[in-house]
Amino acid sequence: MAAAAAVASNCIRELQTDFFETFHLRVEKVLSIGGSSEVVLASSIQDLSHNRAVKKISLKEEDLQDRKLSAKEAKALFHREIEILRTLDHPNIIGGVNGVICPDYMALSMDFCSNGTLVTHLKKMTNGLIDRYFDGLVSGVCYIHSRRIVHGNIKLQNIFVNAKNKSVLTDFGFSYKMPENVSYVKTAGATMAYLSPEVLMKRSKVDPFKCDSYAVGVVLRCLVLKRRPGYCPDYLQEVRESPHVCANFRYFLEALLHRKPSRRATMAQVQTTLDELVPEDYTEELSLNCRPEEESPSTASPPRKKIRSQECEEHSTMSLRGGNAYKLRSFLKKKKCYCTRC
């Protein structure tokens, strides 16, 4: 950790002048705005083909007061973001990161993703694009989780699309690394519409990795329904009431948007399922496993009870044949199942 911090410090320069003037950059347009920061497209005055995305984080007193931070605390968070990003190397995570601290703002320079954020693609979303962007997002989040890094602010505005039409996760301003021996934290998450139920209920301790999983589920919900989230007390119920959600997307929405963290899929489980199951498997599994939890008294299922792992696997895979049965088992932990009978 100390070595990583030293690397981050070496990549952050402090200037008494303006970042754009010092490096001969011209601001072309604003790419996104959020709180006391914005991301702009900057091009080199000497070489207009050289483009960079620059995140500007204000150090003005009024903006710091809005964030309830001192200048020292804001700079510490900036150093942490750079420190984390400089240790990551993944095609679905933003790269080319450098940091500069100016008198009135901090500038984080990074690779430019030429196709904007997922917000700009919502209305023209197709199943093929959803597959592509969702797969990339899962791959990126699974990668950072494997390194025990929590993103903490996954949302449409923080997922860009690069020149290769791949989704790229950005904005690690709320990210942090979880110690090896710690599983829960007091709070997690940043943007209201993407917060998990346990955070909204202000539970004393939450699993931040499961909070990231829920946010990924909200992003998938947005892509499938082609609209921004707003605030909804139960996204899963909203999805269940929509007749135009195909089986494979509904399958992952059921796994990611569950209100109970213990029954919510991890990103590693989702990644395994994406790698091993084929789309036609999802319809059969949904018909067996993904029924609404609250049913009328006349049709209600018997109370759930704990059963042995072997029994769980049997009734979860009884609709599958041949090689498909063993593939689903990799999605299930030894003593957990996402079907509604358990």
What are the salient characteristics of this protein?
two-stranded antiparallel sheet, Transferase(Phosphotransferase), domain 1, 38% helix, Phosphorylase Kinase, domain 1, 2 domains, single chain, disordered C terminus, alpha+beta, disordered N terminus, six-stranded mixed beta sheet, 342 residues
Structure description:
With 342 residues, the chain is of the alpha+beta class. It folds into 2 domains: 2-110, Phosphorylase Kinase, domain 1; 118-276, Transferase(Phosphotransferase), domain 1, CATH 1.10.510.10. 38% of the residues lie in helices and 14% in strands. It has helices at residues 2-10, 19-22, 61-67, 71-85, 127-146, 197-200, 208-225, 235-240, 247-256, 267-276, 280-289, 309-317, 323-329; strands at 12-14, 25-34, 37-44, 51-58, 98-101, 105-110, 149-150, 159-161, 167-169, 176-177. The strands form 3 sheets. A 6-stranded mixed beta sheet has the order 1-5-6-4-3-2. A two-stranded antiparallel ribbon has the order 7-10. α5 (127-146) packs antiparallel against α7 and α7 runs antiparallel to α9. The protein is globular and about 60 Å long. The two termini are 41 Å apart. GO terms for molecular function: ATP binding; tau-protein kinase activity. Keywords: ATP-binding, Kinase, Nucleotide-binding, Transferase. One of its GO terms (cellular component) is cytoplasm. One of its GO terms (biological process) is microtubule cytoskeleton organization. It holds the Pfam family Pkinase.
